[in-house]
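Q: Entry one of two.
A:
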Amino acid sequence: MHTPVTIIGAGLGGLTLARVLHVHGIPATVYEAEPSPTARMQGGMLDIHDYNGQLALAAAELTDEFRGLILEGRQAMRILDRDGTVLLDRPDDGTGGRPEVQRGALRQILLDALPDGTVRWGRKVDGVRALGAGRHEVTFADGATLDTGLLVGADGAWSRVRPVLSTATPEYTGTSYVETYLFDADTRHPAAAQAVGGGSLLAPAPGKGIHAHRESGDTLHAYVSLSRPQTWFAAIDFADPTAAIAAIAREFDGWAPELTALITDADTAPVLRPHYTLPPGHRWHRVPGVTLIGDAAHLSAPNGEGANLSMLDAAELGMALAAHPGDTETALTEYERAMFTRAAEIATDTAELYETLSGPGTPHTLVAAFAGNE
């Protein structure tokens, strides 16, 4: 007999887990702090990889629905120098294993595939405490509590579940993104649109960079990367969009105008996204009745793998629970062993990626790395 599963967090990981459990007839309830599925924008583009994210969607029996979301041509990629010189221009020939979809659309197919009432909205968790014998008490912001025999933290970087397993807390990586959007770019921002092309743009330099995706339609989503201390960003008044944009743009004086337009011509206020990480190789000793998936378990700087890993964690945990009915500890041990190994390998790869992306030799080291992988 399967133990009902309590999942904290209705992101891609928590929803994938709920769906895989549903496929195997295992009851689950997801508790989410946001008041509704449309309470906030669900981020930008995701490339879903054939070696992790797509495997998770197959386990969730949602491959056909996923294929219906793919934005054709978005695997194209360009690397530009700061003066606008194109150093690498890779078209989307349809053979890549990382098709792009909108995060919000992907989340919606997961929600649509769950029974009504699976997700309980507006249920913000304040804390978790162990009750003994593998049971835990979850306390919500409104003072209500629940007692569960199998708890999964899918609640991201600042997980409320993690403290019952680990004393680790996220630390600032030294780098932040500033996000902007340009709408109707082909007609209103043609120079920036031409620079980005049909897929993604990378214009890196040591300690900084301007990157962008073409999302659905002709929306450009830019990510301006700066390696600066948090005190530097704190001195910028992001409540004043004009002043904030001017401060960020000054860091790119002398860059090609079609690149800096992704900052200065923004149609939205700039949004600061500091990057945090858990210690590389983060792990914990087995605690009965509880585990973590995704960023709650192995938060790292953005590396193109985060959403994919969260979904794969979820799928593997769901399948392990299905394979060991009545023996959740064996299932959790099996899941954690594989997850810890995978997360440690990705942490090493992430450190190498950032050296290539923002180290002293970029953008030429980045171009060489892509050429070596072809």
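Q: Entry two of two.
A:
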Amino acid sequence: MSATLYWQVQGEGEDVVLVHGWGMNGAVWQQTAEALSQSFRVHIVDLPGYGNSAQLHAEDLNEISNLVLENAPEKAIWIGWSLGGLVATHIALNHPGRVKKLITVASSPKFAAEKPWKGIQPKVLSAFTQQLVEDFQVTIERFMALQAMGSPTARQDVKALKKAVLSRPSPNPDSLLVGLGLLADVDFRTELKNLTMPFYRLYGRLDGLVPVKVAEDVQEYTVDSEYFTFSSSSHAPFMTEHDEFCSKINQIIGK
């Protein structure tokens, strides 16, 4: 049994790390990685408990980050999607020397809603936790549908997410529970001002999990951060507006 996380590396050039979201695995980035690897050396990780790293488990963000950093490039541009955005932000805050630029995608420093903060209703997260214990396969499928909801290409997006997830081993239920706990409890808002590297945020206008209002609300907590909204996307802009997404990433990295 391997004690290290599964990594996929392709391309040459500046190091870029892609971190997937809850219930998913690195395969969701395949199309993005193929495009970005034309210009960069792209590193895709399967987080502990997911995909080809399903045999490993981590109890908190610190443990997750330490496992990821073991075989991550020494210094890279980090792109974190959804829960992966929390992992990348945690690494940027606690290991700033390893992060050249931080880019979060459809992510939030605090996923759970708490008036007036917009986000996922705590009762929705509680329901997912309950369902997960009963049938985690069905729960992940529901979450995929929730991620694509509102997107004009919702059916295709769900199909692509499902195909990617099923191409690798099923996630570890214990790790899924830890992930839901992070979505429910983590609040990085007041720490964002401590980020020392350029910080970019990408959102989907139709996202039901990270409402687009979060983009403006986060501005209050950051010293200097730029954001961009994909007009036709829900929670997975790198799938819904793939070409535009890759173009935006190239533009950010080139700054």
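A: Comment on entry two: The longest helix spans residues 122-134. Residues 9 and 43 are 5 Å apart (CA to CA).
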